[in-house]
């Protein structure tokens, strides 16, 4: 069975690996979208924010008159708690990631919960080429057509968008002296950190949550991502680890037996209509293990799929359960059921569902150009079959898919990464790097505090940007403490800024 880990892993989605079950989008109460709240077509209200569009420049780095095209960039705004321009009240900006901005906004309760105490204006900016921020007149088919239209999809262009939009917004609000703090999780966290480094005249600080800015070639082992996932399961129980590790061979052997494919289909309750094979089954299981490790949150969640608290533990409990004593395939089914059927409403599993509800598809282009993040290598101790991650495979894939050659060292050329401590110690300030060590992306995160104001906050039990999520009464103490610490640091940046403003220093 060709289990070779496929090439492109978005921070959230695994491309060319089946996303087997459309995650249920958290939705707002429909009453909140009532007609009375709808303003003009360029300004709609949904209960948490108003939606606006800004005419953005397509190419910030070219003065060729032919490249002065524009596009409509979406941003979401909430001014309910804002102290106003007269008070120079702060503006919190979320630097959008590789997907629909509404999805990230809904999952960034930290900003909403801190808007009242900070009297902050909240702004969430969508990344170009995602959601509704599509160049070429909003025509996705054209924008994604080929290298010449996709060429404007890059992190540097996105950061320049954010800078341009923020400056224009401040002008419109006459909020010239309001301090900007940028926030982001995952790729959005990388952008937040880079934004503070590249545009310190615009943002006074950045909270970069689960931002793997070091997950690039020659900086991390391509095995680290899978090693962390392996450790997550192993730390629950040795048996859980062994069952997962042995599962690929078991599936392969079962498939070879007479009636084996039918047995697999029945055991895993694969839909009858589904054209399934051992490869799609393996990738379906792999997706479940990876995402569950990434979103191993301490409270019930619904980021990618609805999940119970500490879902890795739940999966291992399902595997270790005596109910399926001699039935290893049954154990694997029970574990997958935690990820794909926590709501209990799925009648059968559809392995070839490749829907993309959060609109993450553009990442594939980014992963074929500048985001060469070595992920998916798997060594002999891993719960996945051994697999060597090779840059050449990515290159060949991108050549065949887009006819494009990646620039694997561009990100570290543009933003740095080597000897990060030494560099950031001298020139950077006011950045928080949060990482949860259960999160496989933490392998490429900044895990050590670099200076008094470039601070790493590390949560041993934390998962992917858990700090940015809405708080709940059931949150463990470590999580509450981390959020308090972050708030305290941000407050110190803002008061320092006001002191400087007052004394003109
Ligand atoms: C801002 O968010 C709060 C919830 O935190 C909500 O009650 C309020 O209606 C929102 N305001 C706008 C203008 O959308
Ligand atoms: C790329 O796609 C656009 C939009 O469909 C088209 O106008 C253009 O000719 C294409 N360019 C190349 C090089 O194929
Ligand atoms: C600022 O105001 C102008 C004029 O109304 C508008 O075109 C522009 O989109 C506004 N900028 C932002 C960021 O909303
Ligand atoms: C488990 O399988 C072994 C070997 O096939 C068998 O001897 C044993 O009776 C089985 N135990 C149960 C509880 O089914
Ligand atoms: C999903 O869970 C429900 C409730 O536990 C169960 O009845 C159903 O069979 C499960 N679906 C699948 C496909 O296993």
TrEMBL record:
Keyword Glycoprotein listed: yes
Superkingdom of the organism of origin: Eukaryota
InterPro entries from the UniProt entry: AB_hydrolase_fold (IPR029058), Peptidase_S28 (IPR008758), Ser_carbopepase_S28_SKS (IPR042269)
Signal peptide span: 1-20
Family note: Belongs to the peptidase S28 family.
GO BP: proteolysis
Keywords noted in UniProt: Glycoprotein, Hydrolase, Protease, Signal
PANTHER family: LYSOSOMAL PRO-X CARBOXYPEPTIDASE, PROTEASE S28 PRO-X CARBOXYPEPTIDASE-RELATED
Keyword Signal part of the UniProt annotation: yes
Source organism (scientific name): Psophocarpus tetragonolobus (Winged bean)
MF annotations from Gene Ontology: dipeptidyl-peptidase activity; serine-type exopeptidase activity
Protein name per UniProt: Lysosomal Pro-X carboxypeptidase
């Amino acid at each position: 069975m060709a289990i070779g880990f496929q090439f492109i892993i978005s921070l959230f989605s695994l491309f060319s690996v089946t996303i087997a079950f459309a995650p249920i989008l958290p939705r707002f109460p429909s009453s909140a979208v009532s007609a009375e709240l709808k303003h003009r077509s360029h300004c709609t209200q949904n209960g948490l924010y108003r939606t606006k569009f800004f005419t953005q420049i397509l190419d910030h780095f070219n003065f060729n008159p032919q490249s002065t095209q524009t596009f409509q960039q979406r941003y979401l705004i909430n001014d309910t708690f804002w102290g106003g321009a007269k008070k120079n009240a702060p503006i919190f900006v979320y630097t959008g990631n590789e997907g629909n901005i509404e999805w990230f906004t809904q999952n960034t309760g930290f900003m909403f919960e801190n808007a009242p105490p900070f009297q902050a204006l909240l702004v969430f900016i969508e990344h170009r080429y995602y959601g509704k921020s599509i160049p070429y007149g909003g025509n996705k088919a054209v924008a994604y057509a080929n290298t010449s239209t996709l060429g404007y999809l890059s992190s540097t262009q996105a950061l320049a968008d954010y800078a341009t939009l923020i400056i224009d917004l401040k002008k419109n609000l006459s909020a010239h002296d309001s301090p900007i703090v940028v926030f982001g999780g995952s790729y959005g966290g990388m952008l937040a950190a880079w934004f503070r480094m590249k545009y310190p005249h615009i943002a006074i600080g950045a909270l970069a949550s689960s931002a793997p800015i070091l997950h690039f070639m020659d900086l991390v082992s391509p095995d680290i991502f899978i090693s962390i996932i392996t450790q997550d399961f192993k730390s629950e129980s040795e048996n859980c680890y062994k069952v997962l590790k042995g599962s690929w061979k078991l599936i392969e052997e079962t498939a070879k037996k007479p009636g084996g494919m039918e047995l697999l289909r029945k055991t895993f309750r694969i839909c009858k209509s589904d054209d399934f094979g051992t490869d799609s089954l393996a990738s379906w299981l792999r997706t479940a293990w990876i995402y569950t490790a990434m979103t191993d949150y301490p409270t019930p969640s619904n980021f990618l799929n609805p999940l119970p608290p500490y879902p890795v533990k739940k999966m291992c409990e399902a595997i270790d359960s005596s109910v399926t004593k001699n039935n290893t395939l049954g154990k694997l089914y029970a574990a997958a059921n935690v990820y794909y059927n926590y709501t209990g409403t799925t009648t059968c599993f559809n392995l070839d569902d490749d829907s993309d509800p959060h609109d993450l598809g553009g990442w594939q282009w980014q992963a074929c150009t500048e985001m060469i993040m070595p992920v998916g290598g798997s060594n002999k101790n891993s719960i996945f079959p051994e697999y060597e991650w090779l840059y050449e495979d990515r290159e060949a894939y991108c050549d065949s898919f887009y006819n494009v050659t990646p620039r694997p060292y561009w990100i570290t050329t543009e933003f740095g990464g080597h000897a990060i401590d030494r560099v950031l110690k001298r020139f950077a300030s006011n950045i928080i790097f949060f990482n949860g060590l259960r999160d496989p992306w933490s392998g490429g995160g900044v895990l050590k505090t670099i200076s008094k104001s470039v601070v790493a906050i590390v949560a041993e039990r934390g998962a992917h940007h858990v700090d940015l999520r809405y708080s709940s009464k059931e949150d463990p103490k470590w999580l509450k403490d981390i959020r308090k610490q972050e708030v305290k640091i941000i407050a110190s940046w803002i008061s320092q800024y006001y002191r400087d403003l007052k004394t003109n220093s």
